[in-house]
Specification:
CATH topology: Pseudouridine synthase
CATH superfamily: Pseudouridine synthase
CATH class: Alpha Beta
Largest sheet: 11 strands, mixed
Number of domains: 1
Shape: globular
Number of strands: 13
Structural class: alpha+beta
Number of helices: 4
Helix content: 10-25%
Strand content: 25-35%
Length: about 260
């Protein structure tokens, strides 16, 4: 990359270190450190949904992410991501994600404002001291006893970006409870993942014969559409997150205000 291009990206905050910090032209070089930059993405379609802030203090920003908006830049998406939107609208160039939601999944998403605080929050996720509650709309099986706990071994599918179940010791666990059934016979489920494997909830629901409505990946990988059909979002919502804040010591619970297609 030519030096003038590099300086321009640094000045615009387009280069991010592996700890979420944003270096400047004066930042000392650190050996063996990863630096990431966001390339330009042509013809990036706008996502016509808002990104409301549920909470903000000196350390945290908590948002209610809509369906179809990626959490962070990657692949075909740069500007239409929660991280890019928030860095611009809040003027917080060092804002960094504490976890991720699939682009197809809506709901509660946490970001850290101060790089020096990020490790303390991420430790909560790594040690499973954060309660994550999801909601999904899916078919109902009368023969399926509930509530239940589903466990399986998940691994990346060779040559694909999807996940599959495999033989061996379970590395994923989800508690599943049917909450209600609407007039159309659709079920509203409460999902409590103990682990956080890629597409875990989608794979587990599909494995039990109750795939989440409007899932483009499971049970069958459908052709990638030329444009999003915003009328058919995946019926999966990160309903709530709860944890004890490592700085204030307070129990925090954040809940999404979004609703899935039910009733």
């Amino acid at each position: 990359m030519p030096s003038e291009v590099l300086r321009g990206r640094l000045k615009r905050g387009e280069i991010v270190a592996d700890d979420g910090s944003v270096p400047t032209c004066d930042t000392p070089y650190m050996p063996l450190r990863w630096l990431w930059y966001y390339r330009d993405v042509p013809n990036e379609a706008p996502v016509p949904f808002d990104l409301p802030i549920l909470f903000q203090d000196a350390q945290l920003v908590v948002v209610d992410k809509p369906h179809f908006l990626a959490s962070i830049p990657g692949g075909r998406y740069l500007r239409e991501t929660a991280l890019t939107r928030l860095r611009g609208s809040l003027d917080l160039p060092q804002l960094s994600p504490l976890h991720r939601l699939d682009r197809d999944t809506a709901g509660v998403l946490l970001f850290c404002i101060r790089p020096e605080c990020r490790g303390s929050y991420q430790a909560l996720f790594q040690s499973r001291r954060i309660l994550k509650e999801y909601e999904a709309i899916a078919p109902v099986r009368a023969d399926l006893a509930q509530p239940l706990v589903y466990r399986s071994r998940l691994r990346p599918r060779d040559g694909h970006f999807t996940t599959e179940e495999a033989e061996g010791t379970a590395n994923s666990e989800t508690s599943i409870q049917l909450l209600d059934v609407d007039a159309l016979g659709r079920g509203r489920y409460r999902l409590l993942p103990t682990t956080g494997r890629k597409h875990q909830l989608r794979v587990h629901m599909c494995a039990m014969g109750i795939p989440i409505y409007n899932d483009m990946f499971y049970p069958d990988l459908l052709p990638f559409p030329a444009a999003d059909d915003f009328s058919k979002p995946l019926q999966l919502l990160a309903r709530a997150i709860e944890f004890t804040d490592p700085f204030s010591g307070r129990v925090r619970r954040f809940e999404s205000r979004r609703q899935l297609a039910f009733g």
